[in-house]
Design brief:
By secondary structure, this protein is mostly helical. It has six helices and two strands; from the N terminus they run H-H-H-H-E-E-H-H. It has a two-stranded antiparallel sheet. Helix 2 crosses helix 5 and helix 3 crosses helix 4.
């Protein structure tokens, strides 16, 4: 598979759309697809759906959390999050409890099994990315490393604009 974007795909771009935006979109999509596919190949035990992984990640940083908070953080419908949480409770990854501030409300917490699954998922992905990075030349690895702060800043800007869109 070529490292270059597919040139045969030539969809019309809206006025003002930068070619860099299109290439970055394709690169991110291809990276996610390749990582997801390689993890399933290299680590067949890894069957956790990405939506559940993302909820575990949020709970890893913000636990306990209400369903509404999880939905807002992942920009999903509360009913979707509620269904995912139900599956994750059945799997023993999270537990539902009572909110200490409002005893009428419930919160979701990460269980020890959920923390272990999240840690294993993170380690597996880091190992896979480390292995792929090790095959690249030094200049390419340096370019990726140098791009990381800008990519995090871009992610923040995208999150800010999404929050602004949701508020209107």
């Amino acid at each position: 598979m070529s490292a270059q974007p597919r040139s045969e795909v030539s969809l019309p771009r809206p006025a003002g759309e930068a070619p860099d935006a299109r290439l970055l979109t394709e690169a991110v999509t291809r990276l996610r697809r390749a990582l997801r596919s390689s993890i399933r190949t290299d680590y067949p035990w890894e069957t956790l759906p990405m939506a559940q992984v993302e909820l575990l990640q949020v709970l890893g940083e913000h636990s306990p959390a209400r369903i509404s908070d999880l939905a807002a953080r992942r920009r999903l419908a509360q009913s979707t999050v509620s269904g995912l949480v139900g599956q994750m409770i059945t799997a023993g990854l999270v537990a539902r409890g009572v909110d200490s501030v409002d005893r009428r409300a419930s919160v979701v917490t990460l269980t020890d099994a959920g923390r272990e699954k999240l840690d294993a998922w993170t380690i597996a992905h880091e190992r896979r990315i480390d292995a792929a990075l090790a095959t690249l030349d030094g200049d390419t690895r340096a370019a990726i490393s140098n791009a990381l702060p800008a990519l995090f800043q871009l992610a923040e800007k995208l999150a800010e604009s999404s929050e602004g869109d949701a508020a209107t």
